[in-house]
Design goal:
The chain folds into 3 domains: 160 residues, Bacterial polysaccharide co-polymerase-like (2-Layer Sandwich), CATH 3.30.1890; 156 residues; 45 residues, no CATH class. Helices cover 66% and strands 8% of the residues. The strands form 2 sheets. The chain has a 4-stranded antiparallel beta sheet with strand order 2-3-1-4. The radius of gyration is 65 Å and the shape is rod-shaped.
Length: 509
Amino acid sequence: MTRRELTPADYMIMLRRHWLLITILTVVGPFLGYGVARALPSRFKSSTLVLVEQPSVPTEFVKPVDTTDVNERLASMQQQILSRTRLEPIIHQYGLFASDVNTTSMDDLVARLQKAIEVTPVLPMALTRSESLPGFYVNVTLEDARTAQEVCTTVTSMFIEENLRRRQEQSEDTTQFLSQQLTDAKSKLDDQDAKLAAFKGRYIGALPEQEQTNLNLLSGLTSQLDATSQAIARAQQDKTFTQSMLGQQVAEFQSAQTGQTPDTIQKQLADLQTQLTSLRARYTDDYPDVIKTKADIAALEKKIAAGNAPKTQQEEDSDKAQKSSVEPIQITQLRAQIHAYDQVMAEKTKEQDQIKQQIKTYQDRIQSSPTVEEQYKELTRGYQTALDSYNELQKKRDDSAMATDLERKQQGEQFRVLDPANLPDKPSFPDRTLFAGGGLAGGLAIGIALALLIEMQNTSMRTERDVEFALRLPVLAIVPAIDPVGSKKGSGIPQLPPAEPIVSHGARA
């Protein structure tokens, strides 16, 4: 039978042959499972639900300092809370595993308590499309229901306190760090400010933003210099003309006084002075004709002066006094005009020197402007960088300070207990119904397996197909078996024994 393919009918026949064994094992299985469940020590499971509440102030107004994912933070806190340092006091406080304290090491007890504590995240709903953790469960499974509840409450409180402590410490540490960085940035900004102020004081007037002003001032000074030079030239021209007229008037006056006629020399001198005035109006003092004319005038003046004996200053003053008293009013006016022209030329010459000095100053500023601009840009860039860093750190420090104040007032993200730890009224393990069901399924499976095993070990042939498969010959007829007389109650007809198959073998039947 084991060598041929079995049909569902074969399996049904086997089940009918061994139904008693299968039924006994199936009936005994639930009782056996229930008995095992009764024999195992009971464990009670206490659970609590903790929700992750979002900050009361929107994050658009106050950004939290701790931006780590709640799942990562929860995993980190779980490792810390379920460490030996935190769990060992709980074992001593509630007297856990009292029967094994003397025979088991503390590391093994801590490991048992770690296995008894289970932290399960709450998955967000698919419709919300949110990746943040909405909450988590804390489950504690122990042999005593009250102890499980108390340990669950304690562990949950540890999670809540650890979350508050960690967020507050992180906010305070961040604020303190940013305050120190802000102080350093303020010191650097002050140094840059001092360097920039010193540079501006050193190159006052030559700064890049003053270049256009310097160009405008230089243009104005150049115009003033031209006007002053023209004023000096006009004054010199007027003085020369006045001097020629004075010479003529003086010569006429002296000739009238002495009876001499120095008209020829005076006329030549006047002509030369007029010519010199005309040349100066058109050319500079370095022009050759101007130089020659000046030399001729000097020669004539020397010739005229040679005829007069030198006089002391006192005699000249006396002569001037006499002449002023006796000279005509025209000569006196001409002398006053010449003196006024001298004063005007002196003032204009002084003004011209001042303008030239100012022009040189502004020209030096404009020439040094590229170098100053490069240094100024470098200092300005360093100052701007320090200022931006200071402003950014100040903003971050202010945001961190607000976040720290928010955490201190417990208005930030925090854990809130939604369902307190329950007191289990029945053990979570072992589940006797489940064990009974498992015993039922196990007994049925064992019964079927034993029936199949018995059938596989039985080599008897019970059907026509078994005979044909074993002998590889067709069955021609089947002789029924006749039971002994009286084997069937209530019937006087003798029963035939079971039919025996007649097998043909070659020519024999």
